[in-house]
Amino acid sequence: MLNFEYLLPTRVIFGKGTHLDVGNIARRSGASRILFHYGGGSIRRNGVYDAVTDSMQRAGVSYIELGGVRPNPRLSLVYEGIRLCRQERIDFILAVGGGSVIDSAKAIGMGAAHTERDVWDFYSGAAPERTLPVGVVLTIPAAGSETSMSSVISREEDHLKRSCNDETIRPVFAIMNPELTYTLPAYQTACGAVDIMAHVMERYFTTTDHVETTDRLSEAVLLSMIANVPRALRQPDDYHSRAEIMWCGSLAHSNFLGVGRVQDWATHQMEHEISALYDIAHGAGLAILFPAWMRHVYRADVDRFAQFAARVWDVPESDDRETMAREGIDRLESFFSSIGMPTRLSHAGIDASRIDEMARNTFCNNGDRTGTFVPLTLEDKLAIFRAAV
Amino acid sequence: MLNFEYLLPTRVIFGKGTHLDVGNIARRSGASRILFHYGGGSIRRNGVYDAVTDSMQRAGVSYIELGGVRPNPRLSLVYEGIRLCRQERIDFILAVGGGSVIDSAKAIGMGAAHTERDVWDFYSGAAPERTLPVGVVLTIPAAGSETSMSSVISREEDHLKRSCNDETIRPVFAIMNPELTYTLPAYQTACGAVDIMAHVMERYFTTTDHVETTDRLSEAVLLSMIANVPRALRQPDDYHSRAEIMWCGSLAHSNFLGVGRVQDWATHQMEHEISALYDIAHGAGLAILFPAWMRHVYRADVDRFAQFAARVWDVPESDDRETMAREGIDRLESFFSSIGMPTRLSHAGIDASRIDEMARNTFCNNGDRTGTFVPLTLEDKLAIFRAAV
């Protein structure tokens, strides 16, 4: 285990009906002039928009609206939000939505709090010093942004998709009502599930030895997801499975599964290139890339992949660790297929024509390589993209 | 899953050498005049006392010492600490030790911050409104007090041992260096391990349905403990197992395993009566009582005990759930024996003479009953104590 620091200052308010009190919760968090940030029309259709605005009015906080966040949230809307915050003297940002809305809110919060800096700097390696406080009403369990220190933003003009990771930007509260996810379409539910599982696996496949506790905790979250996602797909208004998935989404990316270990993140970096070019859902891209990445790298630590196979996928223990490892990867891929996810680029209508561009553009988060479990060269990335066609 | 709120504002600083920077960490947490609170001579013998005082001097914070905390920390020393805080205008309490020292520090912090209240009120049901900030250098993984909202104090004159549980009293930071636990004697290591496992099990045995994720996470911590405690006993300076145990201790009692579920706590309440009368180590008392409690209550939910047996103790799945359940309890008891713990009162030199007194004194944390998995009557408690003789 490596030395680590860990702090999770986000107040989680979890359960039925919890979003109805968002106005008071925001007021107690110091909000008086709120930027109410959201996405498309789904929160208007399912009553969340009305519930949130009613709650803010009853609590006596004022708000300005900024809707229109789209998947793979864009820098241009972030700039608009920053202008609005300054013009309206906003002191709090309320993000109502999924990871895209929350990531956009985090970007606006940083940008508005730094008058002397371009917010894109914080997605290019600079560390933010402060932010406007961000509160969340979560409607899509997936990105884990409600308790994470991450935000991912896309810059339209050059198709760059980059992340900022800093303790400063964890939300001050996260209201999670699993009932709000009953209306999520099956495809979006499954995409979210893949993202959640990917957040666990990016941490699980590590070069750090002696990480027994976090290994076991990671396997626990994966086992719960494997049990609960098919239930939620069969019965979209099953509170229990929706609740387990929503809580797993926060656990998966709040980094308590990642403490004390080197993390990988190659698959996320490579997926960003797919969704930057093709605007495919992030979870679908991950379902395509993760098995391909695993088959490319598992020989670097066959025992870890065999452990994953045995504990998570119930592959029988055997002396043939390599066969165990491959069987675990096959079962992961089958699971993704079983919940309706593509597992090849071609399933998503993407051909090999821009693989070279995607491999070359993939962010190198480890010197001139991508990832740490196996630090990927350009050749490695090309091979993984090709295997995923 | 029940609705819940969760907030863990303690900054964890984990790993080798971390305690050497405690002075700066305390200063950055706002400390200028520190009450340095500790127990007996062990921190003087193992160099921690010198390291901590050097660090405070280098950081330019002043401190007053109050040592002498004993296991089952006493109210009289808490009062002395409160007097000292007022007299010396202390603004921060640094607890260096295990659960007893931290619990005593929490009590002093509450008492010093409430001039109009007797601190014992907060151990008799009143909620504290504030506290002096408490920081921790942990030397014994066991009570989990370094990140918990709990403190347990004993009042000497009437042998009352009572707890305070409030969000207000979580420490502001917890420095955890597993190296500091190399010198823990085997018996104390094992007592700590039982306490950690008990904190998981008090939450695991619940009447709440559909708690898959927290079940799995709880099993993960227990599995890690079962693997690592024997290693630490065989090789006391094995960093890896010491680190896993130390991190499990915080996970077990920070309540992230307990969210969304009814918790039991009968065994802890009953154990408090043993250690109040006999001054036996808390972990040893728990090793005696837990199997006896389990055998008394398991028929209330045989499936939950069978799940515990299968997932934690590798008991083969079978249609005979009752035999599985009993086998799991037997294996827990055997594990406690294997790490040198007593599993009967007689093993600790305690006879049946005061069972009636202990059963009658046991705090009823559920109306006129103790516990929730099976709300225990006086007769139940007598039966459990008798079975543990």
List keywords for this structure.
alpha/beta, 6-stranded parallel β-sheet, 389 residues, 2 domains, 47% helix, Dehydroquinate synthase-like, alpha domain, globular, Rossmann fold, homodimer
Helix/strand layout:
The structure is a homodimer of 389-residue chains.
Chain A: E1 4-14, H1 22-28, E2 33-38, H2 42-45, H3 48-59, E3 62-66, H4 75-87, E4 92-97, H5 99-113, E5 134-138, E6 150-155, E7 160-165, E8 173-176, H6 186-204, H7 212-234, H8 239-253, H9 266-278, H10 282-297, H11 302-313, H12 321-338, H13 355-361, H14 378-387
Parallel strand pairs in A: 1-8, 2-3, 2-4, 4-5, 5-8
Antiparallel strand pairs in A: 6-7
Helix pairs in contact in A: 1-3, 4-5, 6-7, 6-8, 6-10, 7-8, 7-11, 9-10, 10-12, 10-14, 11-12, 13-14
Any overview of this molecule?
With 389 residues, the first copy, chain A, is of the alpha/beta class. The first copy, chain A, has 2 domains: 11-180, Rossmann fold; 185-387, Dehydroquinate synthase-like - alpha domain (Dehydroquinate synthase-like, alpha domain, Up-down Bundle). Chain A is built from 14 helices and 8 strands. Chain A has a 6-stranded parallel beta sheet with strand order 1-8-5-4-2-3, sandwiched between helices. In chain A, helix 4 crosses helix 5. The first copy, chain A, is globular and about 65 Å long. In chain A, 58% of the residues are buried. The model of chain A has no long low-confidence stretch (mean pLDDT 97). The A-B interface holds A 1-18, 209-210, 212-213, 216-217, 219-221, 223-224, 227-228, 240, 243-244, 247-248, 251, 256, 259-260 and B 1-18, 209-210, 212-213, 216-217, 219-221, 223-224, 227-228, 240, 243-244, 247-248, 251, 256, 259-260. Strand 1 (4-14) of chain A pairs antiparallel with strand 1 (4-14) of chain B.
